[in-house]
Amino acid sequence: MMSAALIVFLILFVAVTVLGFIAARWRQGDLSQLHEWGLGGRRFGTIVTWFLLGGDLYTAYTFVAVPALMFGAGAMGFFAVPYTILVYPILFAVYPRLWSVSRARGYITAADFVRGRFGNRTLALAVAATGILATMPYIALQLVGMEVVIAGLGIRGEAALFIAFAILAAYTYTSGLRAPAMIAVVKDLLIYITVLAAVIIIPAKLGGYSAIFASVEPDKLLLAKDGVRDFGSESAYVTLALGSALALFLYPHALTGVLSSSSRNVIRRNAAILPAYSLALGLIALLGFMAIAAGVKSNPAYAAGFATYGNNYAVPALFLEMFPGWFVGVAFAAIAIGALVPAAIMSIATANLFTRNIYREYIAPDCAPERESQVAKIASLVVKLGALFFIVFLPQTYAIQLQLLGGIWIIQTLPAVLLGLYTRWLHPTALLTGWATGIVAGTAMAASLQFKGSIYTLHIFGFALPCYAALSALVLNLIVAVALSALFNALSNAPREDETAVSDYH
């Protein structure tokens, strides 16, 4: 006999699935055109964009992994909150320019913009390939988040993941970006209900927040510092927050959400109201400390879950311990749907990159728009299948390690994409060399840590400076790009191709 949690979960999941297929007729456009299928026709207003970007950035894995970090590592895990806050000024200041030029020139991806701005197809290919490789494990981690909550419902094996994959693949193929945009509304409402219930009910059962913090080891409440000449966790925390903020809107799925907006003002308004998600994330992070106070890891009932999924099982165990069965179904549905929305957007974003910047650029330059859209739909299926392969046939640690590398890699596209919005002084060959340097250096740092972390300690003037490897590699990338640009520009004054105009950026 099915539990109340499983019944509620299935009802909500089926409702969302139906909604995904209905989305094909929402704000109806010609889905045989890539900009309609892959960007929703660039017609999403403030509210839809808010839910879409929120669904994009606050994922199932976020809901599971951020509290898990707090549960295991303590205060260091809280870096996820300030980094999302740092994102919004970037969104407000920078991305209206990218939206404007993309709208004016028909760009669908960041690599489209780089190709047009710098007239260098190799640099555009590097940006596209980086985006695809960085996003693939990100999709896999959404399935990890879903797998954890499904296990919490007592369902073992991969059959449930295959069913979820089939559903995700079907409505994404049919509806394109409209499906996750519509589902994101339901997903976010469920998450807000879950978070509000959790931060009120769970502390009341545990004796209040003072009792929760008292139950946490003192070392987990503060950032560690080992010595006078060692910045310890403080520099790691700061650089991790800053680097993650710079990387976040370079991911293809985030850019897809931006470019689907109907106007520059929609993006600016979202930069103003999206901090509501950061408030929710701060509360979600505290679930890790609540799980410590509840003693779920020492409870034999949850031993199998922790043995299989490690600290990622902290939130499911906490909800199972604290909530009645029917509300567990609501909470777990929120997390599972929180996997479907970003996974759909990510698969669409990578499909856009493959179609526009690899297939159309190198394989079929003269393909018809209808063919372009069809290739994108097929590519999105392949991407999701690849993510499923990661989860089913490889250890979870591989997906986590590749996601770690993905963050290091994607930030190396910043000089071409973000700085390219403001200047053409940077030489495309220099940008490509800087990108390659950053990729190699960042990967080497991660390799020296055996791909178990991303905090690499620099030794500068006798000081130990633990830093986020992605940010350190980016600094090296920028030094190379600037130095070589100065050299190449001095050696040649020949004009370089730029299909954009000054008026495109306003």
Count of DSSP E strands? 2
Report how far the terminal alpha carbons are from each other.
61 Å
**CATH class division:** Mainly Alpha
CATH superfamily: Sodium/glucose cotransporter
Overall average residue pLDDT: 86
**What order do the SSEs take from the amino end to the carboxyl end, as H and E?**
HHHHHHHHHHHHHHHHHHHHHHHEEH
Q: How large is the count of helical segments?
A: 24
Short characterization:
This protein has 506 residues and is an all-alpha fold. The protein is 73% helix and 2% strand. The model has no long low-confidence stretch (mean pLDDT 86).
Can you put this structure into words, describing what you see?
It is a single chain. The chain is mainly α and 506 residues long. It has one domain: Sodium/glucose cotransporter. The protein has 24 helices and 2 strands. A two-stranded antiparallel sheet has the order 1-2. Helix 6 packs antiparallel against helix 7 and helix 13 packs across helix 19. It is globular. The N and C termini lie far apart (61 Å). The model has no long low-confidence stretch (mean pLDDT 86).
